[in-house]
Amino acid sequence: MLPLFPHEDTDRAHEIFERLKPLADAFWAEHDPIEFKSNPFSVMLVAMLSPRTKTQESRAAMRAIFDIADTPERVATLTYEQIQAILTKHNIQFPDAKARHILQASALLVRNGNIVPRTLGALMQYPGMGWKTSLLTLHLAYDLAPEICVDVHVARISKRMGLVNRQTEKPQAVSRELMDIVPHDLWRWVNACLVFFGKTRCYPSQPNCKGCPVYDLCDRVGVKQ
């Protein structure tokens, strides 16, 4: 497949993420506790709980589940009511569906040897594991990035920078456009860099462009001058 953008945009994308990566690393080291990332099953649970839910609440709910059952076998023996109550207590959105997914996914993990899959296709076969949640699990648990994970920050900022067509809507389409120009060795950093950037500077309606570390590399598409 031919790149959607000329070679100079590959160079520009490379420089953008080379500049943002050390800043993002420092931010996440301070704000993102990593203790749960050593356990792929806990990463998978947090990913399943994360849609429409704050990060701290997803992790709090995961820890509450692990307080009573910390392996797929043990979680699979819990009742739906036990898990649903924990999710509700910790403000997890869609607690009914997510409780069912946790039980079903845990039982399937037990049948598959208690090993969280290391491929995107295999992970997406589990209940509650969509494209984005599976990519997040692979990155956080195994440091793998078979594709670029796209959320609202990644989609918005990549379009603003002019790396992705402004009319592209679906996350997987945004991912494909980014993968055409971002060097493969940087794919696993794109989400972390742009989520950090969106939380701290490149806000949705009023980005803080003054002093921006990538100001000279950004097209500022849609930004009022």
Class based on secondary structure composition and strand pairing: mainly alpha
Which CATH C-level class of the largest domain is it? Mainly Alpha
C-alpha geometry: elongated
> What composes the largest sheet?
none
CATH homologous superfamily title of the largest domain: Hypothetical protein, domain 2
| Average of the residue pLDDT scores | 92
Question: How would you describe the overall organization of this protein?
Answer:
Helix 1 packs across helix 11 (187-200). The longest helix has 25 residues, at 7-31. The protein has helices at 7-31, 40-49, 55-68, 72-76, 80-89, 95-111, 120-123, 131-142, 152-160, 171-181, 187-200. The radius of gyration is 19 Å and the shape is elongated. It is 58% helix and 0% strand. It has 225 residues and is mainly α. The protein folds into 2 domains: 7-31 and 147-217, Endonuclease Iii, domain 2; 35-142, Endonuclease III, domain 1 (Orthogonal Bundle).
Brief summary:
This protein has 225 residues and is mostly helical. It has helices at 7-31, 40-49, 55-68, 72-76, 80-89, 95-111, 120-123, 131-142, 152-160, 171-181, 187-200.
